[in-house]
Design brief:
alpha+beta, Beta-Lactamase, Alpha-Beta Plaits, 2 domains, five-stranded antiparallel β-sheet, five-stranded mixed β-sheet, 9 helices, 12 strands, 40% helix, elongated
């Protein structure tokens, strides 16, 4: 359908549009939201007006989650409220998925802000999909550890706070990888990075769908295990430790891959929950070191074949 707007309408349209708007879709609606006229750009979005026996309403083009916002915005414009700003929404494209657009509406025919059944509403839509996708990628990058692709400390702190504020039951599991300094020294940081990535993959394999997996420090990982008993959380932690444990062959020596863990029940304070989990992890590490020292002393007295490294134990802080 060709454009059919008056010179006054066009003046209002170009007042609505901004200088950086190059590709725009222009629509005219009646007071009930039915699209009466539209520029050719609307056909390019998969919504040619002539294809409809009954003209579509503006909200028919909008993805369901965004309909209430567009409906409210249109009601204010149809009621005569001027100076409406831009509002962003997802436009439905048949067979192509949703695409982000910005919409600005302006009433025509209303007097002194009073509702008028004969009022028309002019709208300008512009494509902002690429910008929204870039913003979402940047937002995700701020919350993601670039090495392991797990969530980072910022995201972890927010999710732990959310669990505490909503009084969600569950457990916080902390893991610390041992001998990272030795691995980096003997094999280089590239090998150390591979170990960290490998532990992230172990957590993805072992933990349940929906558990929050985070790398919160250099060799420290955290998992929020919600709606689980201590036995469930302990079982998951032990499985992760066992799957990760093993021997890493170096040029002249063998390094044992191992990790330690600590469990703390999610309480009424995020900082206290994290502190208790850290304390249990330190105790687990101390116990593993003492066991290793006893084993070394025994091996000096009685020669024996090297064995597979035992994982650190998962400890509980209630």
């Amino acid at each position: 359908m060709a454009l059919d707007f008056s010179a006054g309408d066009f003046a209002r349209i170009f007042d609505l549009a901004t200088n950086d708007t190059l590709d725009i879709v222009v629509i005219e609606c009646d007071a009930e939201g039915f699209i009466l006229k539209a520029s050719h750009g609307l056909s390019g979005l998969g919504s040619p007006i002539p294809a409809f026996l009954v003209p579509p309403r503006l909200e028919d083009l909008v993805a369901p989650p965004d309909i209430p916002r567009i409906r409210a915005e249109f009601a204010m414009a149809a009621g005569g409220q001027e100076d409406r700003g831009w509002v962003e929404f997802r436009l439905q494209q048949p067979g192509l998925g949703d695409r982000w657009f910005a919409l600005r509406l302006s009433p025509v025919g209303a007097q002194d802000g009073s509702p008028d059944p004969a009022c028309r509403v002019l709208g300008v839509m512009r494509d902002v999909h690429e910008r929204r996708m870039l913003e979402e990628r940047l937002f995700a990058a701020r919350l993601t550890d670039p090495l392991t692709a797990l969530t980072n400390r910022v995201a972890f702190d927010c999710m732990l706070e959310h669990a505490v504020e909503n009084r969600q039951s569950g457990w916080l599991a902390l893991f610390s990888i041992g001998q990272m300094r030795a691995i980096n020294h003997h094999l280089g940081h590239q090998a150390g990075d591979a170990v960290l990535k490998g532990f992230g993959d172990v957590l993805r394999t072992v933990m349940r769908t929906g558990d929050t997996l985070s790398r919160i420090a250099d060799a420290t990982f955290a998992v929020l295990i919600l709606d689980a008993t201590f036995a469930d959380a302990c079982h998951l932690a032990e499985r992760a430790l066992q799957l990760f444990a093993g021997d890493l062959e170096c040029r002249t020596t063998t390094l044992s891959l191992s990790a330690n863990s600590g469990l703390a029940e999610i309480g009424s304070n995020a900082h206290d929950t994290l502190r208790r989990a850290e304390l249990e992890m330190v105790r687990s590490k101390a116990g593993a070191n003492a066991s290793r020292q006893r084993g070394q002393a025994a091996s000096q007295r009685t020669p024996r074949l090297p064995t597979r490294a035992a994982p650190g134990s998962a400890r509980r802080a209630g």
